[in-house]
Amino acid sequence: MKHRIVVLGAGYAGAMAAGRLAKRLHPDDTEITVINADADFVERVRMHQLATGQDLKPRPLSEVYAGTGVKPRLARVTAVDADRRTVALADDNGTDEITYDTLVYALGSVTADHGVPGVAEHAYDIAGRPSALRLRDRLAHLAAGGTVLVVGGGLTGLEAVTEIAETRPDLDVALAARGGLGDWLNGKAQQHLRGVCDRLGITVHEHTDIARVGAAGAVTRDGREIPAQVTVWTTGFAVHPIAAATTLAVAETGQIIVDASMRSVSHPEVYAVGDAAIAEGPGGKPLRMSCASGIPMAWQAADAIAARLTGRAKFPKTPLRYFNQCISLGRRDGIIQYVTADDRARPALLTGKLAARYKEFVCTGAAWSIAHPVLYPVRRHRVVPTRSEVRTAAS
Q1: What's the short name of a Pfam family annotated to this entry (predicted)?
Q2: Is residue 328 part of a domain?
Q3: CA distances from 2 to 79, 91, 100, 204, 315 (A)
Q4: For a tag on the chain, would you pick the N or C end, based on fewer CB atoms within 10 A?
Q5: Domain end point (choices 233, 253, 285)
Q6: CA-to-CA distance for 200 and 142, rounded, in angstroms?
Q7: How do residues 235-283 score in pLDDT, each as one tens digit?
């Protein structure tokens, strides 16, 4: 009987894990199924581009995994029973339940509203393709002179606000940041960022905490009103609540607690990667939710699963660390902030057109590697039956 591996989610982490498993394990011994709510692999790091009217290259999962042995299935995950090793699904045909021997949990994250009133009713986000397309349609119908407020001064907020301002110079675009503008970057990077915002005509509200969002804009904690016909919410991410509803050990964030191999500390047949897992990085700091964390986590999990199933005591250790932060500031500018292993800004950086090309190379490379999951060299090892499986077969 084939060992059933089920991967939940085909974002960067889930899609990468599935492809790497297909590269490591013999198809005669394993059955790898990827469950995803979207028929395509979606480049989440490009949602700000999609929202501003740019078209992205479609990457159907059926084509991505053609000839690999990985079976993509279009469905929504509604529940996981970690004790029975089952996953409940829903699709256009109704509901279903599938069973796994090994589970890779990679359901990712959604926009976090942090309990701020009015966000769900009045704000847009770019956490996924459907929401980015809603914002795209709203911006397309916004007349010249219209007002847009992006709330959140992190990487997503900076990329969104500069992309909107560059694409629609006829709009009045503003950014509300809880701290100082790019205050985690080094001094030169902050200076460059301010110059870009000035050049694009972006009004920056620093040290501004939003208390509520309405149809006509946002209200700050100190009672100031920031008018906006369109409010874009980019203040961070929260994981899907499915894991917290299971018997899996999770952190206060709802993320699955894993060991160094991305294996659940409570259920050894479950691995978690990407935003859905909380893993320890350099200095004991939890890895932040990002593509830069999710892909190495996927490599680590896939290699650990392959080693365990094929009877190898040791498996390759993937460095879970940071090298740089890549920030696009429109299509022709950017910042590459080099960082320490634990994600603190170093003096070195790139800016301008060179940084924009660097960021594009990184994004294109990540998507290309997922779209070509089993290019050579491929070393597919045979699965070694466990002692319990041998005893069951003998009886």
Answers
A1: Pyr_redox_2
A2: no
A3: 24, 25, 11, 57, 22
A4: C
A5: 233
A6: 18
A7: 999 998 999 999 999 999 999 999 999 999 999 999 999 999 999 888 8
